[in-house]
Amino acid sequence: MKKLLSTLLFLFVVALLSLSAQNRVYPPTLLEPENADDDQMPDVILNWAAVGGSGGVVMYELHLDTSDAFTTAEVFPYQDLTGIQMNHLHFGEEYFWRVRSKEGSDVSDWSETFSFITFETVALNKPNDGADEQSPNVELKCKDRIGSALITGVEQWEFQADTSLDFNSALFWEGTSETFIINADFLHFGVTYNWRARAKHAGDHSAWSDVRTFETIPSVVLDEPSNGSTDLGLENLLVWDDISGVVDYTLQLADNDAFTPAFTILVEGTEYLTDGFMNFGGEYFWRVRANHATDTSDWSEVYNFTTTSTVYLSSPDDGEVDVSINPILEWDMVTGVDYFHVQYNNENNFNDPCCDEMVEPTDNFFQVVYILDFESTIYWRVRTMKGIDTTAWSDVWSFTTRPVDYGIDETAFDASNISIYPNPSHGKLFINIDEAQNSNVNIHIMDLLGQIHVQEEIMFGQGNSSTALDLSNLANGLYIVKLTKDGQSYSHKITIHK
């Protein structure tokens, strides 16, 4: 009996020792990244499920290694969080990781071993492969994602561009950005470049991306005046397309397409106003090239234009009848001139014209001051001048004034009864007309090219001799105020200066 009791007591003690030797805390379950996930970030967060303990604080230890034997593992000491963010992991590397838990002196077995692979390289975005007409400071842009995941853990992006696939030519360019976008600078014109990019942090850099190509713009594109334009004035705005990354442009203007000799000037913008260079009836050629610190583009295509050799009349129409006896004679504007020369006569010769007047270069009209005879035919012509250069006279046009019984009082506007002020106007204009009888007056405000900006019909007369016009929406410059009633006209030039 004693032997049986001793045996039972021995077995009980062995059982107690066995129970005390078992762990009371379990190994964690790994969550993410999932086992064998690829394209992970170098700052990936490793997460696992929390382990329930016996009431104490459960701590976790993580091992990370490039081998599943964990012989050279980086050890992340016990802490009570269920996730740890990595830092500066190598690109394109396979990593293995495991976690164990600890509560007091109890330590669990290791969890299952998971692996993941960090992304190896970045993908290029813009410009598209084979793109052309790129500026010399073209924007190079990588994709900021790997698949659908936003790239994190990258501190710099390195970019390279070169004419050589080995990226070792004399035109090699490289740049570093804190973002996935960079502007190259001072690339040569008309050259095909290869380009690539990679990500970088303090501990490693990714492999280079695939290589794309793009071609920089070879030359400037001219815009205005269009090629072959005719009948231009002497003052013309030459305009070309802008190229970003350019310091300035070289413009050449000549009277021959060999540009020998040529007027040459550096221009910082994309336009140049010609003045004082050209003559009437001449053909002119122009071209532009772009410059920056390391290169100059090819010359643009050569454009040509011709300046006018005469003036073109516009109103009254040739042969028009029933014209007012105090008409306004109008013609097409010619820019860059000193003045216009107007003649009219009651015979088709101008040996002794009734009118021989000079008109300001900003006005393309002439108000006939002296009332013409009824039913008379008037012949008129115009030319323009710049220095000693003069166009040919325009074609001679004629018109016939209205009959005396036309049914309209032909008394011209009495200028002494008209006040238009202030001049210059700062945005508001007052018109005063002293009329003995009520009459409707059409008011037109037009620019020197004849475009009407304001049109009003106002009744002037007893009880209403003044009106105010709001011109605040008009740009600064010269304008014509034209008053018309019963077929009669009065014009006055004003300046708007706000």
Q: Layout of SSEs?
A:
Elements: H1 2-21, E1 30-32, E2 37-40, E3 45-48, E4 58-65, E5 74-79, E6 83-85, E7 94-103, E8 106-107, E9 114-118, E10 124-126, E11 131-134, E12 139-142, E13 145-146, E14 149-150, E15 156-162, E16 173-177, E17 181-183, E18 192-201, E19 204-205, E20 212-216, E21 222-224, E22 229-232, E23 237-240, E24 248-254, E25 263-267, E26 271-273, E27 283-291, E28 303-307, E29 313-315, E30 320-323, E31 328-331, E32 339-345, E33 355-359, E34 365-367, E35 377-386, E36 389-390, E37 397-401, E38 418-421, E39 428-433, E40 439-447, E41 452-460, E42 466-470, E43 477-485, E44 488-496
Parallel strand pairs: 2-9, 11-20, 22-28, 30-37
Antiparallel strand pairs: 1-3, 3-6, 4-5, 4-7, 7-8, 7-9, 10-12, 12-17, 13-14, 15-16, 15-18, 18-19, 18-20, 21-23, 23-26, 24-25, 24-27, 27-28, 29-31, 31-34, 32-33, 32-35, 35-36, 35-37, 38-39, 39-42, 40-41, 40-43, 43-44
N-end to C-end Cα span: 125 Å
- Specify the CATH homologous superfamily of the largest domain: Immunoglobulins
SSE class? mainly beta
CATH architecture of the largest domain: Sandwich
Low-confidence stretches: 1-21, 407-411
> Mean of residue pLDDT?
90
User: What's the multimeric state?
Assistant: single chain
